[in-house]
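Task: complex structure prediction.
Instruction: return structure tokens for all chains below.
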Amino acid sequence: NAGVTQTPKFRILKIGQSMTLQCTQDMNHNYMYWYRQDPGMGLKLIYYSVGAGITDKGEVPNGYNVSRSTTEDFPLRLELAAPSQTSVYFCASSYSSGFEAFFGQGTRLTVV
Amino acid sequence: QKEVEQNSGPLSVPEGAIASLNCTYSDRVSQSFFWYRQYSGKSPELIMSIYSNGDKEDGRFTAQLNKASQYVSLLIRDSQPSDSATYLCAVNSFNAGNNRKLIWGLGTSLAVNP
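Output:
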């Protein structure tokens, strides 16, 4: 049972470059989330989705975009990477809103 | 602004002792409460869920919920060095659109000393 799978695990980007963080889950969860976690700052919600074709902004959406074409996949797109986007990114999924969330292994992104 | 607060620590306990981690929340209508463990460099891992007042035990872990006082705690009995991690409290809450969402605390760092 794979759960939530994120790729890549590590990435270094140059300022202004773009990339997509991939996330897929095999638990048939409707809800999926993208968080970023900075040292001492806790988990910040970037975007979330309540089902295929439906996405909404979280607390810190600027500089990011998402799409949800299938129940399984929820990619996060970074356009014009900036040093402020250096962080650890976690994808998570849950059966419904407010229920326990299950996390992927994370992506450590450095923008230089 | 709905909030979840935790003491950042570090909380240091000797091996074999009981570690007590506390969490308070501001939304009186919250219904679901979760404890996650996060090892350094790893993702959060769910260890306990609790939904009603009282205690819930799972192995060495006991979650305690008091909705009247708006706090939830996690007790770890017979603490082991492998329990050294950051423990995150998450509470479900309703936002302005009456949708439930998880609100996260910043976490408490626990160090269990051999």
